[in-house]
From TrEMBL, chain A:
Transmembrane residue ranges: 21-43, 116-137, 149-171, 207-230, 271-297, 317-343
Subcellular location, record wording: Cell membrane
Protein name, as recorded: Peptide/nickel transport system permease protein
SUPFAM superfamilies for the chain: MetI-like
Originating organism: Kaistia soli DSM 19436
TrEMBL record, chain B:
Species of provenance: Kaistia soli DSM 19436
GO biological process: peptide transport; transmembrane transport
GO cellular component terms listed in the entry, alphabetical order: plasma membrane
CDD domains reported in the protein's UniProt record: ABC_NikE_OppD_transporters
Keyword field contains Metal-binding: no
Residue ranges of domain ABC transporter in the record: 11-260
Protein name (record): Peptide/nickel transport system ATP-binding protein
Pfam families: ABC_tran, oligo_HPY
From TrEMBL, chain C:
Organism domain of life: Bacteria
Main location: membrane
PROSITE patterns named in the record: ABC_TM1 (PS50928)
Family statement: Belongs to the binding-protein-dependent transport system permease family.
Originating species: Kaistia soli DSM 19436
GO cellular component, one term: plasma membrane
Domain named ABC transmembrane type-1: residues: 93-277
Biological processes annotated in GO: peptide transport; protein transport; transmembrane transport
One of the Pfam families matching this protein, by short name: BPD_transp_1
Subcellular location: Cell membrane
Membrane topology category: Multi-pass membrane protein
Keyword terms of this UniProt record: Cell membrane, Membrane, Peptide transport, Protein transport, Transmembrane, Transmembrane helix, Transport
Sequence intervals crossing the membrane: 29-52, 95-118, 138-167, 210-236, 256-277
Record protein name field: Peptide/nickel transport system permease protein
């Protein structure tokens, strides 16, 4: 034990940091399987009748076979182990609506969501950080006041409503935005590589498709980004104000560096490290928000899939979606920790 | 010392006033007509308690006053008025006038390498290539006795001790070859054992680089080790000025005397150790008349009525006190 | 007051940390938010006097555009949209309030236990909080609703499950900082039991920040409940709930007034709550405010 401890502390700081984060991440993933198992257990409905048709459910032999297949005849801890084992094999059960394995459905719908959420995240970071920095520099001046109201409006506006209003104005009234969906009606998808249409069309050089795909993603991505723009703006402002107050910023000014350098290099860097962490958490909320945005924009992603499954009260499919989203959230936040470690030499070098 | 002042001084502050906005929305004068001159190669000490305006005076030279502050008067640096033109202030900041701050733990950027912090302003001011700036930085690190300067350039502040960081901060400030170094309490945050080393370093650099130094401190012990001449400030005004040896051996202003009495190894060694009664007034609450009168053992009616002028009492020596405490008997 | 600040009594009367700087009540944004909230609550209370029509009364022609007779027009069943929006406050506000109260009570208890006992109990509670926060709120709420059946109260329960951790974190971190304050230490030295110290010394310092947090979370509660109703998982027809009104209206795309007004109502309530919450947060002692992130 002592040997192990000293060996552990002999490891470079960065390695220790990463191992610790990986461990926590793995633990969280395990916890998530537990929660999702517990939720599927509390369901009042009988999984047998939920998964078999009425006729099949009345046949005792089929029922027994079904129970045996999913281990429903075993004690609960054992059922949990079986559940985790099935998860590891990518078996999330069968979706009621599509009559396909939930995993297959997710694999089909996930790329569209990742594409949309990534586009929205990029927009949110660009706008949020710029607005936050401006607000901090012009503290208490009119730009700060305006940005404050804008960012508060951003976190206050109901996403689903904004989606409808923008669609009504820019598509229905002004006709400058394309309609719903990822491509024009009848449009042919680019060859499947990542299944993200913008990237695939770029990779295969289909410029026309790329243009359509981009024009279709702009509006939903903006709507999805609005909330995160608001929260990143507020956070950036606070982080920048704190950073601008630090002695090292005064040192940089005393060295006669141009104000641009002082702000963009000296003040921004520590603020960025903090912003990255918040952005990781915001990404989780954004994935959740896809449910509302995708259902309005008919965006065939996991959000819309979850929505349709919820209307059909298909718990298995919804739990599949939330499992995937939770795991993405954990992985993203581990990546964020890694970025943080790389930005901050105090962690990187110990 | 007087020979140094015969030539035009490097820095000459004339009638400097600085006012700050108060929480109630008014303005309060924090610096109230300060005259100060520094000759080439001279170390001038500026002493006073917190709130005396010494740091604001120094920051105004660099044009780094806090937001909302307003300044008046003139600050000549080699014939250029830094207060009159923001362009002139920006031109000398960092290149001809450099500053070192109190706390080396926070004054260096925690996320930028030492090399980056040593060279970026050098490149900016002297228009050097990265390679040439690196050479300047390494030489300067060597000069402040950082072991392995080339390797130190690749490291980060948290990998150095407090004393080392202050040496690095000084090296960084001097890398662009300034003529004047403003050091604001450069040793206050350091261990006593490290302090002496930093003071010796500043003294040595002054000789090697013909540097002028404005040394700001509340610690007259630090002052006595280094300064050629001393200014003592109280409540935004200079109350005593003179050669270091004269002032410390025989303080003429009651405030200076009080400060020295509070030192464990104060000069008049037969005096018992005695703290100044009361505390310095806050900005905006300076007493009428001589601001020091509520704490002064010698105060008379005139002190409560009129602001005393700075009067010469000996060659190169002025005090702002109508009562010469050498002659007076404590009330 | 200030003249005696150095005199002896202050050393005996242990100072409490004031949780708000005085400036909070002079901020125009906060006052605007407060006025809006009061107006909206009054609107909900006096709905029958404000509107000539009932929320589910189907008297008028269908799809009338906004006019002096029907300010916000009429919907697909000939109901007055203005009446439905006004009465909608009677649905959304109580449920959001319910949600905030339940989540804050559970979160406060969890956070107090975690911060007070520390050790493995703290570890378990805070890891559970991390776990819940990893789940996407709307999607998890959808799962709970799918399990329990649609309905606003089930939606509230679902959202409580995902929103208690923020309160737990704030309370815990307040507890940890306050535990080391001199006046808490001193009551400990005076032999006051820790539970009593917690109640007497800590409670006044936690309540303020909790109210600020609740103000900020109230807006979020309104938003997420409206979102779930929009998806058809919250309020059920014919209840005049804003989210489901937007959803109904979206089926008649060219009849913009069906969706625009209820959505605006949501925006207004949430904006008002956020104006108040944000102003209060700004006025918080900066050390306390940090715990909010």
């Amino acid at each position: 034990m002592i040997k192990f401890r000293s060996a552990w502390y002999a490891l470079p700081n960065l390695v220790r940091f990463l191992v610790r984060r990986l461990f926590v991440g793995a633990l969280l993933c395990l916890g998530i399987t537990f929660v999702s198992f517990a939720l599927t257990q509390v369901v009042p409905g009988d999984p047998v009748s939920a998964n078999l048709g009425d006729r099949a459910a009345s046949d005792p032999e089929i029922v027994a076979a079904f129970r045996a297949r999913y281990g429903l005849d075993k004690p609960i801890p054992e059922q949990y182990l079986l559940y985790v084992e099935r998860l590891f094999h990518g078996d999330l059960g069968e979706a009621q609506q599509t009559h396909r394995p939930v995993t297959t459905d997710l694999a089909q719908y996930l790329p569209a969501t990742i594409e949309l959420a990534s586009a929205a995240m990029i927009l949110a970071l660009v706008f949020g950080i710029s607005l936050g920095v401006i607000a901090a520099i012009k503290r208490d001046g009119w730009p700060d006041q305006v940005i404050r109201i804008v960012s508060l409006a951003g976190v206050s506006v109901p996403t689903f409503w904004l989606a409808l209003v923008t669609l009504y104005v820019f598509f229905f009234k002004l006709g400058i935005a394309p309609g719903v969906g990822r491509l024009n009606p009848g449009g042919k998808a680019p060859p499947a590589i990542t299944n993200m249409f913008t990237i695939d069309s770029l990779l295969t050089g289909q410029w026309a498709t790329f243009g359509t795909a981009v024009s279709h993603i702009v509006l939903p991505a903006l709507v999805l980004a609005i909330y995160t723009v608001g929260s990143i703006t507020r956070f950036t402002r606070a982080a920048m104000l704190e950073s601008l107050n630090q002695d090292y910023v005064r040192s940089a000014r005393a060295k006669g560096l141009p104000e641009r350098t002082v702000i963009l290099r000296h003040a921004m860097r520590p603020a960025l490290a903090a912003i990255v962490t918040v952005a990781g958490m915001a990404f989780g909320r954004m994935l959740s928000g896809t449910v509302l945005v995708e259902s309005v924009f008919s965006w065939p992603g996991i959000g819309q899939y979850a929505y349709k499954s919820a209307l059909a009260l298909d718990l298995r499919a919804i739990m599949g979606v939330s499992l995937v989203v939770a795991v993405i959230y954990i992985v993203v936040n581990m990546a964020v920790d890694l970025i943080y470690a790389l930005i901050d030499p105090r962690i990187r070098l110990g | 010392m007087s020979s140094q002042l015969a030539k035009p001084p490097l820095l000459s502050i004339e009638g400097l006033t600085i006012s700050l906005p108060t929480a109630e929305g008014h303005r309060a004068e924090a610096v109230r007509g300060v005259d100060l001159a520094i000759g080439r190669g001279e170390i001038v000490g500026l002493a006073g308690e917190s709130g005396s305006g010494k740091t604001l005076t120094a920051l105004s030279v660099l044009g780094l006053l806090p937001g909302g502050a307003r300044s008046g008067g003139r600050i000549f640096f080699e014939e250029r008025d830094l207060l009159a033109s923001g362009r002139a202030a920006r031109a000398v900041r960092g290149s001809e006038v450099a500053m070192v701050f109190q706390d080396p733990m926070t004054a260096l950027h925690p996320m930028l390498s030492i090399g980056r912090q040593m060279t970026e302003h050098v490149r900016f001011h002297l228009h050097l290539s990265q390679h040439a700036a690196d050479a300047v930085a390494v030489e300067m690190l060597d000069r402040v006795r950082i072991p392995n300067p080339r390797e130190a350039m690749t490291r980060y502040p948290h990998q150095f001790s407090g004393g080392m960081r202050q040496r690095i901060a000084i090296a960084s400030a001097l890398a662009a070859g300034p003529k004047l170094l403003i050091a604001d309490e450069p040793t206050t945050a350091l261990d006593v054992t490290v302090q002496a080393g930093i003071l010796r370093l500043i003294e040595g650099l002054r000789r090697e680089l013909q540097l002028s130094v404005l040394l700001i401190t509340h610690d007259l012990g630090v002052m006595s080790a280094l300064a050629d001449r001393v200014y003592v400030m109280y409540a935004g005004r200079v109350v005593e000025r003179g050669a270091r040896s004269d002032v410390l051996a025989l303080p003429r202003h009651p405030y200076t005397r009080g400060l020295l009495d509070a030192l464990p190894h104060g000069s008049p060694s037969d005096h018992p150790l005695r703290a100044l009664p009361g505390s310095p007034p806050a900005i905006g609450r300076f007493p009428v008349g001589c601001a020091f009168h509520p704490r002064c053992r010698f105060a008379e009616d005139i002190c409560r009525a009129d602001v005393p002028d700075l009067m010469p009492v000996a060659p190169g020596r002025v005090i702002a006190c109508p009562i010469d405490p050498l002659m007076a008997v404590p009330a | 007051m200030s003249d005696s600040s150095l005199s002896v009594p202050e050393l005996v009367v242990l100072p409490r940390r004031r949780f708000l700087r005085r400036s909070a009540w002079t901020q125009p944004l906060g006052l605007v938010g407060l006025a809006l909230l009061v107006a909206i609550v009054l609107m909900a209370v006096f709905a029958p006097w404000l509107s000539a029509h009932g929320p589910i009364e189907q008297g008028a022609k269908r799809f009338l555009a906004p006019s002096s007779e029907h300010w916000f027009g009429t919907d697909q069943l000939g109901r007055d949209v203005f009446a439905r929006v006004i009465y909608g406050a009677r649905v959304s506000l109580p449920y959001a309030l319910q949600l905030v109260i339940m989540a804050s009570v559970i979160g406060t208890i969890a956070g107090a236990i975690a911060g007070y006992f520390g050790g493995w109990i703290d570890g378990v509670i805070m890891r559970a909080a991390d776990l819940v926060m990893a789940f996407p709120d709307i999607i998890l709420a959808m799962a709970v609703v799918a399990a329990l059946g649609p309905g606003l109260f089930n939606a509230v329960l679902a959202v409580v499950v995902v929103s208690w951790p923020i309160y737990a974190r704030v309370v815990r971190s307040m507890l940890l900082t306050i535990r080391d304050e001199p006046y808490v230490q001193s009551s400990r030295l005076l032999g006051i039991s820790s539970a009593r110290a917690l109640w007497v010394d800590v409670r006044p310092n936690v309540v303020g920040p909790l109210i600020v947090l609740a103000a900020l979370e109230f807006g979020h509660a309104v938003l997420i409940l409206a979102g779930l109703s929009f998806l058809g998982l919250g309020a059920q027809p014919p209840a005049p709930e804003w989210g489901s009104m937007v959803s109904d209206g979206s089926k008649y795309f060219d009849k913009w007034w069906l969706s625009v007004f209820p959505g605006l109502a949501v925006l207004l309530v949430v904006l008002a709550a956020n104006f108040v919450g944000d102003t209060l947060r700004d006025a918080l002692d900066p050390r306390t405010a940090k715990a909010f992130r």
